[in-house]
């Protein structure tokens, strides 16, 4: 009983410490309520949201998804008003506030930046014909973005909503609306600079590939495939960027848009693995190249180990799985052992981010290993599966609908292991004891 009393007292003390007698919406945000006062439901929704954001103990993990959903759904209402620029300034300020207050939480900061850019992209699509009316507020916004710290801007450089697309749309509208592009061009220039600097900080792909490939690349050249992502090419882009002017002319921005942005480089990386298979090796027809799939896997592993390519990591995991299955059919255990071990390690590292994909890959790999009938292959696979670990439920509370919050990979893990056990119960005794 004393334990319960102590817990209760601690809870009371915590509630007293975090209690706030009265919360008010700041005057500058009040316009966001006033512009939709004719729509009772929307007005009540934005008022409640702003009150929670104004609370000194606000929780951005809960508020950001709600704020994003609200602005994406209701932006058109605000754009219809003559006070549309003021509304944009206040909504963007809320997202920027979340970015500023989440410096210690990288995942939350990334979510805040992604939400902000989704809103800006939606907003720009609605005001293309009235762009000149938003000159001042957009200039202020782009200047503010350019002054963020480098970590925050990198989320913009490598995010889901590329600045290049927004800049392209702005350029098309600016020519018809007498819109000054100086601030837009300056921000895009900084984004490209950080982009190229990042890629130059990674290993040069061709020398790395030749070192990793070893004997599998003997008498085989892949230089042309890597030219577009080489340090030499990236350095030439950076040099072109240094020579480019930052002015209000459409030509200045248009020139920058001819240079590859982050997503352009991601696409180049994504295309290379398949080209490693289709590019012929200089061998006779009597001796076909046995190592095309091996070379492909090596580069797929490179993609998974490059943080800037996280947008294609889940797809790459699936491709690694397909390539390894092909190798299981074609090569001996000794030839594929290192590829199997590396794949299992990558699946283990990514199971939290892509639980269903990782577990599906393990299920497919296990099925193929059992079909091969190699005891060494099956034993190694099962041992690595045990090292992979079991995803427990880890109930951490309940959600708004009073449903338990659990590890989403738990049920998928049960299904995957049952599928393996049903195929070879005797071999899978290891899984029972894990």
Order of helices and strands: HHHHHHHHHHHHHHHHHHHHHH
Q: Would you tell me the structural class of the helices and strands?
A: mainly alpha
The shape is flat
The radius of gyration is 27 Å
> In angstroms, what separates the terminal alpha carbons?
38 Å
Percent of residues in beta strands?
A: under 5%
What quaternary form is this? single chain
How many beta strands in the DSSP annotation?
0
**Residue ranges: pLDDT <50 for 5 or more in a row?**
1-6
Please state the average pLDDT score: 86
Mind summarizing the main beta sheet?
none
Helix content: 55-70%
Helices, by number, come to: 22
Give a summary of the structure in a few sentences.
The protein has 434 residues and is an all-alpha fold. The protein has 22 helices and no strands.
Can you walk through the features of this model?
By secondary structure, the protein is mostly helical. Helices cover 70% and strands 0% of the residues. It has 22 helices and no strands. Helix 9 (163-177) packs antiparallel against helix 14, helix 16 (292-304) packs antiparallel against helix 17 and helix 18 (333-350) packs parallel to helix 20. Mean pLDDT is 86; it is low at 1-6.
Task: Output the keywords.
mainly alpha, 0% strand, disordered N terminus, 434 residues, 22 helices
Question: Which SSEs are present, and which pair or pack?
Answer:
Layout: H1 2-18, H2 30-34, H3 40-54, H4 60-79, H5 84-100, H6 106-126, H7 135-146, H8 150-157, H9 163-177, H10 182-201, H11 205-213, H12 223-226, H13 231-243, H14 250-257, H15 262-278, H16 292-304, H17 313-330, H18 333-350, H19 355-372, H20 375-388, H21 409-423, H22 429-433
């Amino acid at each position: 009983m004393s334990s319960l009393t102590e817990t209760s007292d601690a809870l009371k003390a915590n509630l007293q410490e975090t209690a706030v007698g009265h919360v008010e919406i700041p005057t500058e945000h009040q316009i966001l309520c006033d512009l939709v006062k004719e729509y009772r439901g929307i007005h009540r929704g934005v008022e409640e949201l702003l009150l929670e954001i104004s609370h000194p103990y606000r929780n951005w993990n809960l508020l950001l998804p709600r704020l994003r959903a609200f602005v994406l759904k209701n932006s058109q209402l605000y754009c219809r008003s003559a006070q549309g620029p003021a509304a944009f300034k206040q909504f963007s300020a809320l997202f920027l506030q979340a970015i500023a207050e989440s410096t210690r939480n990288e995942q939350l900061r990334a979510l805040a930046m992604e939400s902000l850019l989704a809103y800006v992209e939606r907003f720009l699509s609605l005001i293309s014909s009235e762009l000149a009316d938003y000159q001042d507020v957009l200039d202020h916004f782009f200047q503010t973005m350019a002054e963020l710290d480098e970590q925050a801007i990198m989320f913009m450089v490598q995010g889901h909503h590329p600045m290049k697309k927004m800049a392209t749309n702005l350029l098309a509208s600016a020519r018809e609306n007498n819109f000054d592009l100086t601030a837009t061009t300056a921000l895009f220039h900084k984004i490209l600079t950080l982009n190229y600097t990042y890629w130059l900080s990674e290993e040069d792909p061709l020398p790395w590939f030749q070192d990793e490939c070893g004997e599998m690349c003997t008498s085989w050249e892949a230089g042309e495939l890597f030219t577009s992502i080489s340090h030499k090419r990236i350095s030439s882009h950076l040099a072109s960027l240094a020579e480019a002017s930052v002015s209000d002319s459409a030509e200045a921005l248009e020139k920058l848009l001819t240079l590859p942005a982050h997503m352009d480089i991601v696409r180049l990386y994504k295309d290379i693995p398949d080209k490693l298979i289709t590019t012929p090796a200089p061998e006779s027809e009597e001796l076909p190249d046995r190592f095309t799939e091996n070379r492909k896997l090596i580069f797929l592993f490179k993609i998974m180990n490059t943080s800037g390519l996280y947008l294609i990591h889940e797809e790459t995991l699936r491709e690694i799985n397909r390539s390894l299955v092909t190798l299981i059919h074609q090569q001996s255990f000794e030839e594929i052992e290192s590829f199997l071990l590396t794949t299992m390690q990558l699946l283990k590292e990514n199971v939290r981010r892509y639980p269903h994909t990782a577990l599906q890959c393990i299920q497919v790999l296990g099925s193929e290993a059992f079909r091969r009938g190699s005891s060494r292959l099956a034993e190694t696979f099962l041992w690595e599966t045990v090292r992979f670990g079991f995803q427990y439920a880890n109930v951490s509370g309940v959600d708004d609908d009073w449903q338990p919050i659990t590890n989403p990979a738990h049920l998928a893990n049960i299904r995957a292991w049952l599928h393996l056990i049903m195929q070879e119960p005797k071999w899978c005794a290891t899984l029972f004891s894990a």
